[in-house]
Automatic annotation (TrEMBL):
Pfam families tied to this protein: Meth_synt_1, Meth_synt_2
Protein name according to UniProt: 5-methyltetrahydropteroyltriglutamate--homocysteine methyltransferase
Pathway(s) it belongs to: Amino-acid biosynthesis; L-methionine biosynthesis via de novo pathway; L-methionine from L-homocysteine (MetE route): step 1/1
Amino acids binding 5-methyltetrahydropteroyltri-L-glutamate: R25, E26, L27, K28, K132, N137, R561, C562, W607, E651
Top EC class for this record: transferase
Binding sites annotated in the UniProt record for L-methionine: I477, G478, S479, E530, D645
Length: 801
């Protein structure tokens, strides 16, 4: 046993990670400037170092101990899973020429430019696939591991950043994705034999971690944090027992060296859920290893009643009681109760922490502006009550430090803070707008008929008669490129430097261009291009009652891309139509059918910070009712096709299979509530992306949309036969153009994909469209890609005739 040498564990509290994009998105801007070629790698490194140092200073100022590894070292230029791939040298063979670059920093096999190329692709070299990180709106880059992937310590960035912080006076706790999670999130490399499991490479990966730990210890790191969130999920590629066996093997090897000279103490963090279920108990497995600490998510997860874990004697348990994934101020009294209850665990030491990294919340509520009274709140000038109700990353650090003081010195030491938190929680529970009787009454009066449309056959006939579309109709998913001009106009308008009428005029001009372009290209169903939307969720949140939106509450979504998740704090209602004028204007410009464009209730919830005082399903139905009214108004304005996007349907799928059925029930119902009020001849579309859909195929069918467009290009249409086999028989638009990469897919490529789709399901139900919206693309890529899509469609149509 090595536990006798455990260092003093985080007595002042700790957090599992901190936002790294910068308080004003400094990292995003620096990275994008580097990509654009306007700054050098050295300049980017210097900006990043400044951001890291500012973070260290801030965390210490907020109360974390600078001497004992309480401050996490959780920086990343792009993604922490990509960082692990760089660390392990696990770069796919198509990028082999980037390895060992002359311009790579000492200690790295990849240059910064090379690292970004793996993330973003180049020419015909596709980037790593991107997918959702557990149940968050953060996306990571999927490692590709094969039998021959050569692992070595290919980057010592983690060590360099530890030294940099140490030299600045802060002893950090480096944070690295753990080996079991890394391999279980990986996919088999393209050239791997069928049935190959990346987890089979565990024994080759672990020695690299051993070497990293040795290097960190040599620099004096007291702790390292290895993130193993996969232990909270049972939706994984191998039986849970196999994952747990891998934990035993990996952490057995990682704890062989003595703490101190051989390695830092190891904290295994398990965010996003509980570890104990009926059939498996990952906490028992972890407790049986020789790691020195375990960080538990006590917000999403709970512990089995009065369970004791003898293996935890001598270990530190970091009790993740402060929510790292939502923005409500903590009820400190209730959190202290949870901490009291943890005595039964039998841990050697108890420390206070966050449930997850704080990378999922914005920096600071004090970066927002507040109106003097609730009535004066508008736009991003927030209702002053929110200042009291909310806690962003910096407030959460203070909550952690306060709870740690209460734990160490007794509740009396933090009475004032606890009382203030209790007052805030009480004020929120009873505040005007949190419960709106009219909203409640409408939801209570719903009947099954409100969730049901006419039979599909009847709808399909009525829609074909009304729309008269050709076979394999072509369309796009909604957004066209968000140009710098559009964003500048919106920024000026928000600052009051561009009048509302001039802004609207500029957006209308953009819509005119987008319509003309689509007609020129020859698309069948047109869109307005969404120029007026800053974001597909924030736009609606700004127009609905019950939501607040921030000015600076940025959260990284992937790479340099950020979002400002709205805050859903009260009952939701729609004071006025939200999209009708834009869609009606668009329809007036063309004889082609125009598709109205809305975001669905599940996605609006998934990409907002939602109230935690009622079941999500109830909140979803309130949003569903608001959207139902919008669909009715669009229909009344002559819009015959309406798309209701649900890209986040898969994202909120619970990590534990036992919870799937209940989730799929309320999520599907809220969509149906939104879409079932329209006439038989109105065609309802939906769109899903960024996911493996396997586990939600039944739900896709359950949505009962007339047409579903799905991301499919990278997976080469594999979802089409899956849907067919699941009995899905309505319209399907599998993406034939991967919009995540700047590559222009050729006519041949898109023809081949479309032919694949047509070959595996009734051609009469197939649509041709890109994988997702075009907002992150530039016109230089968009125009030829869509031209090729139309040409490909014509070629495949000819084979059908
Ligand atoms: N919420 C959400 N989640 C999602 C998606 C999504 O579309 N929305 N898509 C998936 C992938 N995630 C994505 C997340 C963000 C972006 C994205 O493009 N984000 C933009 C910001 C979008 C935005 O809020 N735009 C605002 C603000 C733009 C801005 O930065 N303005 C400048 C000023 C510009 C100027 O003066 O020139 C500034 O504020 O500094 C607007 O258009 O109004 C970015 O990071 O660049 C894309 C995909 C999954 N999750
Ligand atoms: C992330 S799904 C995006 C759908 C949206 N209608 C768009 O085209 O941008
Ligand atoms: Zn999409």
């Amino acid at each position: 046993m090595t536990t006798t040498t455990t260092p003093t564990p985080f007595a002042g509290g700790t957090v599992l990670g901190y936002p790294r994009i910068g308080r004003r998105r400094e990292l995003k801007k620096a990275v994008e400037a580097f990509w654009a070629g306007t700054t050098s790698a050295d300049e980017l490194e210097a900006t990043a170092a400044q951001i890291r140092l500012a973070t260290l200073r801030r965390l210490v100022e907020l109360g974390l101990d600078p001497t004992d590894g309480s401050v996490p070292g959780s920086f990343s230029y792009y993604d922490q899973v990509l960082d692990a791939s760089a660390l392990l040298g696990a770069v796919p063979t198509r990028f082999a020429s980037l390895v060992g670059a002359d311009d790579a920093p000492a200690g790295d096999a990849l240059s910064l430019a090379g690292y970004f190329t793996v993330a973003r692709g180049q020419g015909d070299r596709a980037p790593l696939e991107m997918t959702k990180w557990f149940d968050t709106n953060y996306h990571y880059l999927v490692p590709e591991i094969g039998p021959d992937t050569a692992f070595s310590l290919a980057s010592d960035r983690v060590v360099r950043e530890f030294v940099e912080a140490r030299d600045a006076g802060v002893v950090t706790r480096p944070v690295v994705v753990g080996p079991v999670t890394y391999l279980l999130l990986a996919k088999a490399a393209d050239d791997a034999p069928a049935g190959f499991s990346p987890l089979s490479r565990l024994e080759d990966v672990v020695p690299v971690y051993v070497e990293l730990l040795r290097r960190l210890a040599a620099e004096g790191a007291p702790w390292v944090q290895l993130d193993e969130p996969i232990l909270t999920s049972d939706s994984i590629d191998v039986p849970v027992a196999e994952a747990l066996a891998a934990v035993t093997t990996a952490y057995g090897a990682l704890t062989t060296a003595p703490v101190g000279a051989g390695r830092p103490a190891i904290l295994v963090a398990t965010p996003f859920g509980g570890l104990a279920t009926q059939d498996a108990d990952a906490l028992s497995t972890l407790a049986a290893t020789d790691v020195e600490g375990v960080a538990l998510d006590l917000v999403k997860g709970s512990l089995p009643d009065a369970a004791t874990y003898p293996g935890l004697a001598g270990k530190t348990v970091v009790a993740g009681v402060v929510d790292g994934h939502n923005v409500w101020r903590a009820d400190l009294a209730a959190k202290l109760d949870v901490l009291d209850g943890l005595a039964a665990l039998g841990a050697g030491a108890l420390a206070v922490g966050t449930s997850t990294s704080l990378q999922h919340v914005p920096h600071d509520v004090d970066d927002e502006t507040y109106a003097a009274t609730s009535a004066e709140a508008s736009g991003t000038t927030l209702d002053p009550r929110l200042r009291e109700w909310l806690a962003f990353a910096d407030q959460k650090v203070v909550e952690v430090a306060t709870l740690a003081r209460g734990l160490a010195q007794g509740r009396a030491a933090v009475t004032a803070e606890v009382d203030a938190a209790t007052a805030a929680v009480t004020s929120r529970a009873t505040a005007a707008g949190v419960v709106v009787p009219a909203v409640r009454e409408r939801a209570a009066a719903l009947t099954e008929a409100d969730f049901t449309r006419a039979a599909y056959a009847e709808r399909a006939a009525a829609q074909q008669a009304a729309l008269d579309l050709p076979p394999l109709p072509t369309t796009t998913i909604g957004s066209f490129p968000q140009t710098p001009e559009i964003r500048r106009a919106r920024a000026l308008n928000a600052r009051g430097a561009l009048a509302d009428a001039d802004y609207a005029q500029q957006m209308q001009d953009e819509i005119r261009r987008v319509v003309a372009l689509q007609e020129e290209i020859g698309l069948d169903v047109l869109v307005h291009g969404e120029p007026e939307r800053n974001d597909m969720v924030q736009y609606f949140a700004e127009l609905l009652d019950g939501f607040a939106v921030t000015a600076n509450g940025w959260v990284q979504s992937y790479g340099s891309r950020c979002v400002r998740p709205p805050i859903l704090w009260g009952d939701v209602a729609r004071p006025a139509p939200m999209t009708v004028e834009w869609s009606a204007f668009t329809a007036s410009l063309t004889d082609k059918p125009v598709k109205g464009m809305l975001t669905g209730p599940v996605t609006i919830l998934a990409w907002s910070f939602v109230r935690d005082d009622q079941p999500l399903g109830d909140t979803a139905n309130q949003v569903g009712l608001a959207l139902r009214d919008e669909l009715a108004d669009l229909e009344a304005a002559g819009i015959g096709i309406i798309q209701v996007d649900e890209p986040a349907l898969r994202e909120l799928l619970p990590l534990r299979q036992a919870d799937h059925a209940a989730y799929l029930d309320w999520s599907v119902r809220s969509f149906r509530l939104a879409t079932s009020g329209v006439r038989t001849e109105t065609q309802v579309h939906t769109h899903l992306c960024y996911s493996e859909f396997g586990e939600v195929i039944g739900a896709i069918d359950g949505l009962d949309a007339d047409v579903t467009s799905v991301e499919a290009a990278r997976s080469r249409m594999e979802i089409v036969p899956e849907l067919r086999d699941a009995g899905y028989s309505r319209g399907i638009g599998p993406g034939v153009y991967d919009i995540h990469s700047p590559r222009v897919p050729s006519v041949e490529e898109q023809t081949e994909l479309l032919a694949l789709a047509v070959g595996s399901i009734d051609p009469r139900v197939v649509w041709a469209n890109p994988d997702c919206g075009l907002k992150t693309r530039r016109y230089e890529e968009t125009v030829p890609s869509l031209e090729n899509l139309v040409a490909a469609t014509r070629a495949v149509r000819a084979t059908l005739a």
